[in-house]
Amino acid sequence: MQPTQSYTSKGFWLFYFWFLLCVVLYLFKIPLNVFTDFQNLAAPFQNSSWNWNQIFKILGSHLLVVFISLAYLILFLASGEAILKVIFVSRFTTIERWVWSLALGLAFWGLFAESLALTDIFYPNLLRIFSAASLLLFLVKDRFRALRRCWPFEKISGVSWPWKMVLGVFLILTLSNLLAPEMSWDAITYQLVLPRYYLLHHSFYSVPGIVPAQYPSLGEMFFSWGLAWGDDSVARFFCFWAHLATSLTLMTLGARLGSERTGWYAAAFYVFFPYLNIYSTRGYVDLFAGFYVVLGLGLLILLDSESFNQESDAAKKGLFLLVCLALGVVWGIKYNAIMYWLVALVVLLWKLSKKKEGFFFLASLFLFPAFFFGPWVLKSWEYVHNPVYPYLTNWFHSFNWNEFDQRVSIIKFPIEGLRGIVRLPQVLWGIFFERYSGAPNEEVGLATLVFSPLLLMKRTRKISTVVLWLAIGIPFSFWLVTSHQLRLMIPVIAFSSLAASLGFEQALRTWNRQAKWIALTPLILVWLAAFYLFQGLLEQPNPFAHFLGFQTRDQFLNQIMRPVGYVDLNHYLNQTLPVKTKVLILGQQNGYYLQRESVFDFDYTHPLLKEWVDKSNNPEELYRWFLKNDFDYLLYNSNAMMGSVVRTEELGSERYFWTPAQLKNYELFFLKYTRKVPLPIGNGYSLYRILPRGKEFSTFPEFLPGTEKYYLDDMVQLMGYKKASDIVGRSVPPEIYAKAYNAIAMNYSEFGYPCFQSALADLAKDHPDAHEVLEKGRAGFARNGDEASWLALQADVLLIKGRSRAAVPLLEKAQLLSPEKDDVARNLSVAYYNEHHIDKAVQEAETAVALAPYSDDYRKLLSQLKSLQLRH
Hints:
The chain is mainly α. The chain has 39 helices and five strands.
């Protein structure tokens, strides 16, 4: 016995060395920032108003969200259980019945929402009525059963207090993030915003400029039931239910393949995973896809391991039906469903082709994907003539697909090929030790890495794990050669956790004398994961002040949303714009918190404005494109659009490449078919109503939207930099702006606005050359015919010369031609004051303030004039 004990002891110490090495490397590469974390935790509380009315109001809203979310959980479980009884009755455990009931209920209500959207009755009130009435029906039928089914466990025993404590910590951290407003990029740019648009539109429609509008939308239909209540936290709770159900599925798989203890550890390795935990609190459909994949392939693993060997043939067919149904649902959620569906196909062809169930399984395996994916194929074909848009664009010549879109697609969905396989060690190192996702708040768990060597131990109990390894290997291989987005690997992470738990179980059985020391390792890892989750939440930013009621939603969002003023502006627009308004957004990250239909033409999205300009031969045709797509307003932020130029530099393709004719038509469209709407917020924001102006002229924002690259390129060159990103964070002197305006006016003879910009910049100098200023203005007028700007410029020159009386009629005419020009109102006020018409001066100063409420200079001028008016 001595050699065996020596071998056992050596293996145990090698494992512990490996465990400590992984933990030390993890802490070294991703250090714990305890002092910084304390500062980040305290800052929002220090800057918050400690108002008890506010605190109780916010806590009350949190409780309402939790109540509605639990009500939906009851509804999904009750509906799913009713369906499960029709499909299959077997010796499912309580937990197995719980997860399958949730899956079937969620699928049913998702399909129901889909049917409402397809029939143009997708109204929030209707969704609320249906869900509330159905819940009431289930409660009346058997309220005790309906409430009891929310708890999936028959009993919880043998769980030590350190595990209960860490579980409580995770639940509190998760809840704090769930109740915070949504902030994730993909969630607020399509996964949550698209169902919101469908609810506003009361049906599906091809959302212009948003490529994901053509993606499978079943996951978005899940979200719609929560969004119907006006709070995305309810919708995001569904992701958390899916995440929790995935861990419970692993618990049942581990229990059937190993022991109850194996199941608990499998669930723990998965659920205590900071990266996945944060994603479970956000609006990502990947959590739903992962849940259904783990359900379907997990049941297939059990069928292969003969866990249901005692069932009748009819019962086995029911199980096969559930496998195919779960994998079919994924086709309605994500395109990447194929790499998980292939696992089932391989198992069918290899293991079940010669069995009598083979044909039934094969038919079901193709039938359910056709059922769930079919509507989205037809939708994409109707919208863009490509059933798998934006893929296979060389085969299906979809409209609107251009070089810019192709480059974006390559960046977001790269094809690594064999290079991805070769880079496997580097990829694994990046996943575990270098924050592979790139975000500072999305660390991964170490359990799958630490316990993976234990799988090499000789098993005391034979288990068929071939399907398990196929479920890990096939999707992971696909992932390596295609897109490296880690959230696409949720099922692989789940099955890896299951495999690790099997190895850990074997270690506990083999090294029984050191069992206590071995059992300590996962506890250390989950507490470490808890702290990293806490640290990650502080860096995103900190949701705890809002969770406890010390910070409002607006205060929280102001820390995140850009450009500055995003939250206040959207509140203002939600109160003032008509409900059926449609807004084209240029230079804002998204339109998520604008409760109107909108399209953001920004960063990596399809350049919709440029597409319309390309198709227009004159300004009137461009105006018709706005009318055809029902856009009433254009919202622009010049600061963010300049930043967008820097970010799109890496594409190697200009987002807005204008030919001379296009630029001329576009500038004339802006002058003759837009009207500036006053906003209470500056910070580079401008809002324009789209409508014909007749003899009037519009006024330009800081730049003609879409021409920012012209200015930035010249500024970079004038400041001696090599690329646009070099200018980020640096101050640009006024003389650089003036030189850039002049350079653009010289280089683009079809572009009139830079002539006026250059003229005004020269006029602001200490000793301007009036003749040169007027020559530049005359050139601008000759190019674009902007009579209002030309008259205003002449008047400005006269004011500088002290000829106010001569300037007044020019300014009055300019104001008639362009009533929204706040600088004309301001200068006219000064001219009236100089001519001793104090009442008129006050009136024009009030007009200037009304046109630009954010201007401190205008308010100061008005205050001074009113004081003088009172004296007289």
